[in-house]
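Justification of computing resources. Each target in the renewal requires a structure prediction run like the one illustrated here; the chain below, 203 residues long, is used simply to show the kind of job we budget for.
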Amino acid sequence: MIFLRYESFRSYIRLYPVTSLILAVNIVLFAADRLLFGGYITEWGAFRQIPIFDPYGTREPWRYVTSITLHGGWDHLLFNSFSIFVFAPPLERVLGRYRYLAFYLIAGIGGNVLSAIVHIGSFHAAVGASGAIYGIFGAYLYMALFHKHILDDASRKTVYIILVFGLIYSIIVPRIDIWGHIGGGIAGFLMLDLLVKQARKRK
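Resulting structure tokens:
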């Protein structure tokens, strides 16, 4: 089972430096925004769309990235941080540090892109790492479907259960941007497919 975490605090940071950095950034920004800045960081960095004036959220393009590091509440932060802590490390080891960082950011951006397309013409705002996290799940889904030897049976079943539960949860719980989840998942799935094909060409 690749999703069980046995590492000590020090070994976790040493083995998964990018994942550790992502967790640290999420936690520090959330704490600083709540305790010191009164929500200004979220106001500055949240992804948002405004009909007519900024229908795709492109007038302030940094929001496509900064929103991935921000969260709307303690429960939101803790749930996403737990998901990153548990599920991200194996993918970081498979892809390597720099490729994994690019993968994570592009998946998060992909979630915002699909959400922007769906919500065009309406006021829309979003924060959270969920798009990037679903990108990670999308990569595991690709492995589970096309490279079953990479994942053991328990890990494959875990991926399927999480995706089904996540989809249902995203539908029934209000204020969750399901399109951001789907967009991130699709981006992660397609990126891993591209990386696999590139690796085959190099061989």
